[in-house]
Amino acid sequence: MKVAVALSALFLLPSALGVNVTYDPFFDNPNNSLSYVACSDGTNGLLTKGYTTLGSLPDFPYIGGAYAIAGWNSPSCGTCWELTYNNVSINILGIDTAAGFNIALTAMNVLTNNAAVDLGEVDAAAIQVDSSVCGL
After folding, report:
1. What is the pLDDT of residue 66?
2. Neighbour count for residue 91 (Cβ, 10 Å)
3. Do 17 and 126 touch, CB atoms closer than 8 A?
4. Quick one: which of 40, 55, 75, 94 could link to 79 by a disulfide (CB 3.0–4.6 Å)?
5. CB-based contacts of 87, cutoff 8 Å, min separation 6
6. Where is this protein found (predicted)?
7. 93 contacts 80 by C-beta, under 8 angstroms
């Protein structure tokens, strides 16, 4: 009986996905307008919530594109993701499209111990967390 309870509890835990993580210095510039990203306007956009630039976002520079955001006005705009690489975890606010995750260079340097440029890309574990973790 205890084994069955333990096994059923495992299914309640969110599972991490293996994803490719890259960086784009666009996401490091606090003055860049949100009008250039998929989560700009529309009912799910961030402009409609009062944010105007990347720097106005509460989790800047921990922002970027996420695979869950299919395009403009996606219901996944503003989702928060925990990325883990080599036992280092960061939270990323999803504001644009990406094949995996395409994040600010600053954020990727934290994730990779300042090796983002040398590595170019890494495979990380990703799990969606509550948007409040990213300040929304």
Report:
1. 99
2. 15
3. yes
4. 94
5. none
6. Secreted
7. yes
**Residue type (1 letter), 29:** N
Contact 10, 100 (CB under 8 A): no
- The domain locations on the chain are 14-134
* Measured distance CA(73)–CA(40) in Å, rounded: 7
The predicted model scores a pTM of 0.88
Fold of 14-134: Barwin-like endoglucanases (2.40.40)
- For residue 53, the 8-state DSSP code is B
Residue 46 phi, psi dihedral angles, 5° rounding: -90, -25
3 state SS of 116: helix
The two structure tokens encoding residue 118: 């040398």
Token pair 């504001």 is at which residue?
95
CA–CA dist 73, 20 (Å, integer): 23
